Amino acid sequence: MDSTGKPIRVSEITPEGTYLRRREFLKNSLLVAATGTGVGASLLWLMKGGRMGGAAGGSAVGIPAAVPVSSPEGPAGDGSVADVWSDIRKSPLSVTEAQTPPDSVSGYNNFYEFGLDKSDPARNAGTLRPRPWTVVIEGECHNPMTVDIDRILRWVPLEERVYRMRCVEAWSMVIPWVGFSLAELLKRVEPKISAKYVAFTTLLDPQQMPGQQRSVLDWPYVEGLRLDEALHPLAILAVGLYGKPLPNQNGAPLRLVVPWKYGFKGIKSIVKIRLTEEKPQTTWNEAASNEYGFYANVNPAVDHPRWSQATERRIGDIRRRPTLPFNGYADQVAHLYSGMDLAANF
Amino acid sequence: MGEITQAPSAGAPAIPRPRVHRSPPTPWLKPGVFAGALAPLAYLLVQGARGRLGANPIAEALNNLGLVALIFLIASLACTPLKTLFGWGWPIRLRRMLGLFAFFYAALHLTTYSGLDQGLDFRAIWRDVTKRPFIFVGAAAFLLMVPLALTSTAASVKRLGNVAWKRLHRLVYLSAALGVIHFFLRVKKDVRGPAIYGIVLGVLLLVRALAFLRKKMILRRMHAGAPVASPAE
Fold first, then answer.
1. How many CA atoms within 13 Å lie on the side-chain side of B40?
2. What was the pLDDT predicted at A163?
3. Contact A89, A160 (CB under 8 A)
4. Which of A2, A119, A233, A322 is most buried (most C-beta within 10 Å)?
């Protein structure tokens, strides 16, 4: 009987074979769906590097709202640090190219201290505490010091420097850094005549930087410059980008930016700056000296052993563009290397 | 739900259930795997269209397509060892499809590299292939798959003869090994990913090698007239 109470006519009865086949069809459809889901989900899981849980992939990675907008609670009256962010000078050294969106600048990072995938730092860098933060400046200088980052911010006026950033992996960005000339800081410690190089060291703290719990690289990260490179007006220490304090994943609270060199020279979250007589052993150079030189000047004519450096993809573009010698800063910096074989000193 | 809710009445003579469509006992297996195998492509297309593949979507798609190709290649090589180890027959029925999906994703990987990444700059691509072991190895792994994909049909097996076909298709071992090497050469520092795939591939090849040796030993003993414990499948 159906719901109307009428008897069902024989002609309406589904033949048994059809009925059984339909049941089988339903069962098989479900099994197809289940198999497909299982296989598909497994593949997607493997694509994400077998990462368990967590919204991997393109989860929102902009500059987190809770970034240490670290207008630090410096004692009021004592030359407040908050103002320095409201008075950022433009710099004539900036380029005028279209700037890479903040989401990309802070969502696509190589910062192995927070994971190896480029989306890892944005996800994981929340454990870094950029305040309080002191920087040790020592070595071959007359006036070594240990200084709080907020004190440094009161010494030097902040400038916006819009620079091209060329990664050794053949992608590039244009980033509006906020920072100050590295030379300004170095002058304060009065380098000795014997100082030939500057070595920079990142924080070593596997609690704050969980990536350091694995020995992917020889922690802490160390980078270095020749002193004349470090004193060049283009070399800056950055404390912010897009007018705000640096997001942790970009190297808060203090990082190096040397725009004519590959990005890995731009050491992040610096705790130590040391003037030395000898060339410092830098991290990537130590890890793979045939691939990452000490100088690491952007040079389209010297390929990385595994890929060409002749072109690059500006993040956001589809087509590659030619890479420029010294990342387009040749006029300003080429003289630093006159007479040097740049293929040998790559 | 349905109009009929009862089985044929108990009084009726027991009619044997019509054995409809019993021949492949798992008609859902292939379509299910086929649908699932398209998930990576669907994911990349959808996320790509939504701009959710990160700041460098081309690199993201390129890396993932290559990885999925390698996964399918290794999966296709897992079918026979699974039968050897556990006596499962069903993976064998998937083998051709898995191999063709490996080729499909490898072709997409190569297309993405040459079309999107290199912008069809064939001079740059040729320089890459000839100068860089990393690219050369990847290109070789792909080229080795071409004849295998072309001769993947049953007709090809017949035309070539089983022995010759099998011999030709041994190229897949080389292709998979080159795929893993290509992966190793790609990473900057962390070799865990490539190492895992390398180990899986190694274990699969080891199972085959051991099975081969065992068969040879049994054959030799049979030849010598020694009694043979029937090999458990």
1. 31
2. 98
3. yes
4. A119
Q: What is the CATH number of the domain that holds A183?
A: 3.90.420.10
Q: Please, are residues B133 and B185 in contact by the beta-carbon 8 Å criterion? A: yes
* Contact of A148 with A134, CB cutoff 8 Å: yes
Beta strands of A46-123 (E only): which ranges? 89-90
Q: What is the ipTM of this complex?
A: 0.82
Q: Which two tokens stand for residue A261?
A: 């060199």
Q: How many CB atoms lie within 10 A of CB A226?
A: 16
Flag whether A6 is in a domain.
no
pLDDT value for B229:
55
Instruction: Please answer yes or no on whether B55 and A42 come within 8 Å at the CB atom.
Output: no
The distance of Cα B163 from the centroid of its chain, to the nearest Å, equals 21
Which chain A residue shows the shortest CA-CA distance from B39?
A: A40
Q: Are A304 and A168 in contact (CB under 8 A)?
A: yes
- Is residue A193 included in any domain, yes or no? yes
- How confident is the model at residue A306, as a pLDDT? 85
Separation CA B181–CA B60 (nearest Å):
20
| Domain that includes residue A193, residue range | 83-289
Asked whether the beta carbons of residue A311 and residue B36 sit closer than 8 angstroms, the reply is no
- CB contacts of B185 in chain A (<8 Å) are 306
Work out the pLDDT band at B22, boundaries 50, 70, 90. Answer: very low
Total tally of structural domains belonging to chain A: 1
Is A246 a domain residue? Answer: yes
Residue B6: pLDDT above 70?
Answer: no
Instruction: Give the closest residue to A236 by CA, choosing from A175, A292, A278.
Output: A175
Preferred mutation among A12, A30, A43 to probe B, highest tally of B CBs within 10 A: A43
Q: How many other CB atoms sit within 10 Å of the CB of residue A301?
A: 11
CB–CB contact B36 A20 (8 Å) = no
- CB contact set of A103 (below 8 Å; sequence gap of 6+): A61, A62, A63, B55
Is A55 part of any domain? no
Instruction: Check if the beta carbon of residue B124 is closer than 8 Å to that of residue A311.
Output: yes
End-to-end Cα separation, chain B, in angstroms:
46
d(CA B35, CA B48): 20
Three-state SS string over A259-300 comes to CCECHHHCCCCEEEEEEECCCCCCHHHHHCCCCCCCCCECCC
Using the CB atoms, write b or e for A311-340: b if 16+ within 10 Å: bbbbbeeeebeebbbbbbbbeebeeebeee
Predicted local confidence at residue A61, as pLDDT: 39
Q: Cα(B190)–Cα(A110) distance, rounded to whole angstroms?
A: 13
